[in-house]
Specification:
- With 252 residues, this protein is an alpha/beta fold.
- Helix content is 35%, strand content 28%.
- The chain has an eight-stranded parallel barrel with strand order 1-4-5-6-7-10-11-12, surrounded by six helices.
- Helix 7 links the parallel strand 10 and strand 11.
- The chain is globular and about 40 Å long.
């Protein structure tokens, strides 16, 4: 059985780590390189960096930050935000990223996923999907969750898998920052209908929420931000709790 993964997420704006609720009301959470180093040393399995305003501001992900992180951490990390071409991904991977996340650009031109998978291998292509329920239907949003689309979450997830995505990072906008638990019903459906790993994002508040998303949502990995940034949950203690609950996890 594959071990589950714990992934701190660092949302980046103006070179700083920030965290909000439902994608708004952002608060400063610290220097991303310093945080990354700390998480790498204290049990994180991977890291995700999302330059959350890159698409809205029409600019590329912060390459200098990627270079600095690559020097400081020894665990895999994914970078996303403003990624829209093969050249973008090539630069990020050459700068030290292990995986690259695409979101808005893939929605606007789905063929990009196939191009990236063919060029770099599906193992390093993560498709990030931000979605929220509208009249009972999970609808995909783009541009940092600011623009709704008519895309259905589950149909879009199947599409990106068919185009060569190696992994999906699903963030429930309804749950983001609320600390009320992950969107486990939607996660359970995604994991049952797809064959690629699904990362759960949005809603972590307690260790029990992680237990639930692995046991009920069947997520392959769980991503969180504020509970790690502000010291609510210690990663190593969380992993010990998961192990005690028979969830396969790497402790060192």
């Amino acid at each position: 059985m594959l071990t589950k993964r714990i992934i701190p997420c660092l949302d980046i704006k103006n070179g700083r780590t920030v965290k909000g609720i439902n994608f708004v009301d952002l608060k400063d959470a610290g220097d991303p390189v310093v945080l990354a180093k700390k998480y790498a040393q204290t049990g994180a399995d991977e890291l995700v960096f999302l330059d959350i305003s890159a698409t809205l501001e029409g600019r590329k992900t912060l390459i200098d930050m990627v270079l600095q992180v690559a020097k400081e951490v020894n665990i895999p990390f994914t970078v996303g935000g403003g990624v829209g071409s093969v050249a973008d991904v090539d630069l990020l991977l050459q700068s030290g990223a292990d995986k690259v996340a695409v979101n808005s650009a893939a929605i606007k031109r789905p063929e990009l996923i196939r191009e990236l998978s063919d060029k770099f291998g599906s193992q390093c292509i993560v498709v990030a999907i931000d979605a929220k329920q509208i009249e009972g239907q999970w609808k995909v949003h783009l541009a940092g969750g600011t623009i709704p689309t008519d895309l259905d979450l589950f149909q879009w997830a199947k599409t990106v898998e068919s185009l060569g995505a190696g992994e999906i990072l699903f963030t429930s906008m309804d749950h983001d920052g609320t600390k009320n638990g992950f969107a486990n019903s939607a996660l359970a459906r995604l994991t049952s209908e797809l064959n690629i790993p699904i990362i759960a994002s949005g809603g972590a508040g307690t260790s029990n929420h992680f237990i639930d998303t692995f046991q009920k949502g069947h997520a392959d990995a769980a991503l969180a931000a504020s509970v790690f940034h502000f010291g609510t949950i210690d990663i190593l203690e969380l992993k010990k709790t998961l192990q005690e609950n028979k969830i396969p996890i790497r402790l060192s």
